[in-house]
């Protein structure tokens, strides 16, 4: 009996933390998406609408795909990692602004709020990816990459970079709340220069060299290299991973100081 009681006591902190995390995720989904399943479905489908609007515009204008013969596949391979990054980096930042009062409870820490939003966005992004793959199949496209491992690595790195930039954004808005608008404008700039609707490698070399410093552009090229191995795309994997891990390290360091600021 003593052993059983002690094992329960050892498990209780972990169980308590998981319950807090579950409650935060549940509250996050209900407050943002509504109590019904349809509210969450709209959020899952929104990135898909974004991708297929691009396809519809280029199909209506009868513009050829910059790479390969499948417009839908070209836009999807570029848009998926970019949108995954943008949604995570933006929504993690907004989590603190909308859920900061919860940190007044001793059981809830600022990092718990951030981590819960990360998990919600990762699951939402994965469900959206499944919808995109299903619709591409229905359209007659083949969304299975030539190198699935490369595609998986690109997708996971997009998540890591989104988490890193998102945590940095959390620290920034802790001191400058107006950054939420500034980052929205910055996100538009990143999206335009990320190569979702064009092939950056077709640009003049002097321009392309500078655009390559945008890690989001290299994420879209990384994903496309899994589908178009003959394209000759050169991706600096070390640079992207360093950007992701460095941003996570800086973000967590800054969030620690934001926590200290809020608690004083």
Helix content: over 70%
Main pleated sheet: none
Report the total helices. Answer: 9
Number of strands: 0
Features:
9 helices; mainly alpha; 0% strand
Write the layout of secondary structure elements.
Blueprint (H helix, E strand, L loop, with lengths): L1 H32 L3 H24 L10 H29 L10 H29 L9 H28 L3 H14 L12 H7 L3 H13 L9 H27 L1
Helix pairs in contact: 1-4, 2-3, 2-4, 3-4, 3-5, 3-6, 3-8, 5-8, 5-9, 8-9
Please describe what this structure looks like.
With 264 residues, the protein is mainly α. It has one domain. Helices cover 77% and strands 0% of the residues. The protein contains 9 helices and no strands. It has helices at residues 2-33, 37-60, 71-99, 110-138, 148-175, 179-192, 205-211, 215-227, 237-263. It is globular and about 55 Å long. The protein starts with a helix and ends with a helix.
